[in-house]
Amino acid sequence: MQWTLVIPLKPLTQAKSRLADTAGDEVRPGLALAFAQDTVAAALACAAVRDVAVVTDDGLAARELAALGARIVPDEPRAGLNAALAHAEAAVRTSRPQSPLAALNADLPALRPVELARVLDAAAQFPRAFLPDAAAIGTTLLAAGPGRRLLPAFGPGSRARHRESGAAELAPDGVDSVRQDVDTGDDLRAALALGVGPRTAAAAARLVMPGQ
């Protein structure tokens, strides 16, 4: 099964505010872009992924991610993460109504294509499924099979909401890189320990991180 991935990305100046204790205002936009670039590059290298659509209104991010091969969907609703995902889902399904679709976080800089394939293969067994994040509170991936709606409920506590919505909770072995999103300095240290992509590695090398 070949998947289309939808990846939402805030305007870079608004992204990763919880990294304020680790990265200043002048650094965070570049760090957020590096996360997204490494996420998109890894996703496009995954054998189970047909294509990637990024929903964003950030001009720089749109240019950089399109250069990697992503399709850019403007965030026309401008009403938050779940509205952006629903809009991108509709745009993708216009051309591929029966394509299996998965929403993936943009802040997975340690993402490995083989681990993503493992998660998508597990998701293919269910009409809808999700992968909880490393903290077991949020969600890093939400998948919907052919003809099924995503019904995204991302945000704080999304693991419980996605489970309550009827999506199957996935627990495949060996997929730490798909679960390790980055919101805080501790998350970034955990991602670095897993091994991040080249853009994040270069951006993080300019940071002074206690405990690193």
Structure, described:
The structure is a single chain. The chain is an alpha/beta fold. The chain has one domain (3-204): Alpha-Beta Complex (Spore Coat Polysaccharide Biosynthesis Protein SpsA, Chain A), CATH 3.90.550.10. The protein is built from 8 helices and 7 strands, in the order βαβαβαβαββαβααα. Helix 2 links the parallel strand 2 (49-55) and strand 3 (71-73). It starts with a strand and ends in an 8-residue tail after the last helix. The mean pLDDT is 94.
Give me the secondary-structure topology.
Elements: E1 3-8, H1 28-44, E2 49-55, H2 59-68, E3 71-73, H3 81-95, E4 101-104, H4 113-123, E5 128-132, E6 139-144, H5 158-164, E7 168-169, H6 176-179, H7 185-194, H8 198-204
Parallel strand pairs: 1-2, 1-4, 2-3, 5-7
Antiparallel strand pairs: 4-6, 5-6
Quick take:
The protein has a single domain (3-204), classed as Spore Coat Polysaccharide Biosynthesis Protein SpsA, Chain A (Alpha-Beta Complex), CATH 3.90.550.10.
Task: List the helices and strands in order.
Answer: EHEHEHEHEEHEHHH
CATH topology: Spore Coat Polysaccharide Biosynthesis Protein SpsA, Chain A
Share of residues in strands: 15-25%
User: Spans with pLDDT under 50 lasting ≥5 residues?
Assistant: none
Number of strands: 7
